[in-house]
Structure formats: structure tokens, C-alpha cells
Design brief:
224 residues, mainly alpha, 8 helices, 0% strand
């Protein structure tokens, strides 16, 4: 059976890895049909994303550690965006049944999964909003922002519902409540009262605050 701390870690880390691969896929999709300034910006954003290789590898190692501690073999990590969904499926095919053996472990996994999902999609939203600022009426960007808003809403609701359960234990209640508060502070991506860059700044601020809370949570769980 998986431990609660490793279950949280794996659920969370799967999505943080997705920030890199799903982000690259989104930017490449927009850039393929873009011209002039937007195309240049997409190239710059892909370069910036490539510099996130070290954090991505760190979270892949965390996934491998969670698998090893549950007596499961590591899964070959993704190399390209198209590899990422299959990697997630293979990891969960072995690990998720281990979580189902304990309600507490399953809740811990779900807390990590929904939190990671919200953070991944918030990061992608910040990038998409930056691209929107360069070309406001771009249909590809609008499509991505619509999908991201749905993913953010579902992750926020899933997180709220999950932390109401047994989760990671009563000692983590205050930290999880703080995380939820920050998530709920994020504005809608199509807020008519704000410019795209202002909304992106709001998300970056929320992501910073969440980073502080996640670091506290991981330290409490003994995660390295």
C-alpha cells in the first residue's frame, strides 16, 4: 500500500510534469499558425519553457520514488508532448490501485492530483494570456483559454470537495484551507474588467502564494 505522503506527491508531481509538456504543445499549436510578433513570442515562450527542464526532471524523480516505495517499476519518462498522456496512464495503472487500499491514502492522492492540476493549468493560463496580449482575437488562443478555464474550475471544485474528506489529516487543515483560499482568489480568465496581462499577473501572484503553501505542506510530509 502506498503511503499518504507519497500518494500526495505522485498525484501532484504528475501535473507539474504536465506543465512542461502540455505547455510546449499549447505554445507550438498557437505558434504553428501565427505570424510576425505572435510567432516570435511563441518562440520566446518555448525557449523559456525549455529552461524548466530541471524542475520537470525533479518531479519525474519524485514519481519514480513513489513507485519504488510501492514496489512498482519506474515508467520510462516522456520525451515529447505526445508521450506525456501515455506516461501518466502507465504510472496510474500501477499506482492508483495501491491508493484504493486505504481511504486516507486515496484522499491524499486526490488532494495532490487536484492541486497539481490547478497549478498546471494556472501556469498554462498565464502563458496563454501573455500570448493573447500579443494578438487578442486569435481563435487558437481563445480555444485554449476556454479549455483552461474548464480545467481550472474542475480542479478547484475537486480540491475543495476532497479537502473536506479525511485528506492528509487534521494537522494539515489550516494549510489546505490557505491553499483553497488562494485558488478561489484567482479571477476568471475572461474577466471583462481586466486586460489579459493584468489577469496573467493575478495568476502569477496566486501561483507564488501557492508555492509557499505547497513548500510548507511538503516539508510537513517529509517530502524531498
Amino acid at each position: 500500500m502506498a503511503s499518504s505522503s507519497r500518494a500526495f506527491s505522485l498525484g501532484y508531481s504528475l501535473h507539474i510534469v504536465g506543465t512542461y509538456f502540455d505547455g510546449a504543445a499549447m505554445i507550438a499549436h498557437v505558434g504553428a499558425a501565427a505570424e510576425s510578433d505572435l510567432k516570435t513570442l511563441c518562440t520566446e515562450q518555448l525557449t523559456a519553457l525549455a529552461n524548466q527542464g530541471a524542475p520537470t526532471r525533479f518531479h519525474i524523480r519524485r514519481v519514480d520514488k513513489a513507485l519504488a516505495e510501492s514496489d512498482l517499476a519506474a515508467v520510462n519518462p516522456p520525451q515529447q508532448p505526445d508521450d506525456y498522456p501515455e506516461w501518466v496512464d502507465k504510472v496510474l495503472a500501477g499506482f492508483y490501485p495501491k491508493c484504493e487500499a486505504s481511504e486516507e491514502t486515496l484522499h491524499a492522492y486526490s488532494v495532490g492530483w487536484y492541486l497539481g492540476s490547478w497549478i498546471e493549468n494556472a501556469n498554462l493560463a498565464a502563458i496563454a494570456l501573455l500570448l493573447k496580449d500579443a494578438e487578442e482575437d486569435n481563435t487558437h488562443i481563445a480555444e485554449h483559454l476556454g479549455t483552461l478555464q474548464t480545467e481550472l474550475s474542475e480542479a478547484a471544485q475537486g480540491f475543495e470537495d476532497t479537502v473536506a474528506g479525511v485528506g492528509l489529516g487534521a494537522e494539515y487543515t489550516e494549510t489546505l484551507a490557505g491553499v483553497l483560499k488562494h485558488i478561489q482568489e484567482a479571477p476568471p480568465l475572461n474577466d471583462p474588467e481586466q486586460e489579459a496581462l493584468d489577469i496573467a499577473d493575478d495568476y502569477q501572484e496566486v501561483l507564488y502564494e501557492l508555492g509557499v503553501e505547497v513548500e510548507k505542506l511538503e516539508k510537513s510530509l517529509g517530502l524531498t
